[in-house]
Design goal:
The chain has 3 helices and 10 strands. It has helices at 54-57, 64-86, 126-129; strands at residues 146-147, 158-159, 165-168, 173-177, 180-186, 196-201, 204-210, 214-220, 233-236, 242-248. A 4-stranded mixed beta sheet has the order 3-8-7-6, with no helix packed on it. The model is unreliable at 1-5, 11-35 and 143-159 (pLDDT under 50).
Length: 260
């Protein structure tokens, strides 16, 4: 990795039967006849010109002359790729390991905890939320229907899912630290970390903490200001009685309120 980017690739675009090379099978890579070096992102038809192509083009990469050199190399390489694709080959597999070239199979299953509750709850479609929820609370119903096998076979009964007792958390504490606003929630009973579900949106946040007898919920339908969802996170204290939400703000201005 150089400069934060993976090493660019393109081994040898001139195949023995290609009309783009010399016909001898000795091609000169992504740089084409001039062999200026690799310009392609591994596994993708994505090429770089300009300063990101400096390792291949050289110190002139940022200039207009360097852009012309890189553009010509990319055009020739794309022609070679098109020829491979017409022959049913994958022209973009070079630079990837064998494991990376295997497409993952979709199983359609979701990870759950020991009680059968999904580790990540489904989000309610945006047009159905109405400021009432982010996550589908119906998925918190403990487990799938079970079978009672204590009695005779004729007495086997299907047990319906148990609906959790829900308690809203109204009290919280905020700590504003520049770009991060910490929201601390104190729980009446200890909750395991794997029993906490959190959903962040740009202007809202929702928390479910699944206890032994009660499921605690904290929901802010509209935050004071937007947050950067990708940088938001949460932590559960070792005691299990406190959840800390870390909301990453767009600026370091202090929030006067949590709710907008």
């Amino acid at each position: 990795v150089a400069g934060g980017f993976p090493v660019l690739v393109e081994d040898d675009d001139a195949d023995p039967d290609s009309t783009l090379g010399s016909g001898t099978g000795k091609g000169k890579g992504a740089a084409s006849p001039e062999a200026i070096g690799p310009l392609r992102w591994p596994g993708l038809p994505l090429y770089f010109v300009g300063r990101y192509a400096s390792l291949g083009v050289g110190p002139v990469a940022k200039s207009s002359a360097g852009n012309r050199i890189a553009a010509r190399a990319v055009a020739l390489a794309m022609r070679a790729h098109a020829a491979r694709k017409r022959r049913g080959l994958d022209p973009y597999a070079r630079g990837l390991s064998q494991a990376q070239t295997v497409m993952p199979t979709a199983t359609g299953t979701r990870e759950t905890d020991a009680e059968g509750v999904p580790l990540k709850l489904r989000l309610v479609p945006e047009h159905l939320r109405g400021g009432r929820a982010l996550m589908d609370a119906r998925e918190l119903m403990s487990g799938a229907p079970g079978i009672d096998v204590d009695g005779p076979v004729r007495d086997i009964a299907v047990k319906p899912p148990v609906k959790p007792v829900m308690q809203e958390l109204a009290q919280y504490q905020t700590i504003d630290d520049d770009f991060v606003l910490e929201v601390r929630l104190t729980l009446p009973e200890a909750v395991r970390a794997d029993k906490v579900r959190v959903a962040f949106e740009e202007r809202s946040v929702e928390v479910f903490a699944i206890g032994e007898k009660t499921t605690f919920r904290f929901f802010v339908p509209k935050l004071f200001k937007p947050v950067i969802v990708e940088r938001c996170r949460y932590e559960v204290a070792k005691s299990g009685k406190r959840i800390s939400l870390f909301l990453h703000k767009y600026d370091d201005n202090e929030w006067r309120f949590l709710k907008g």
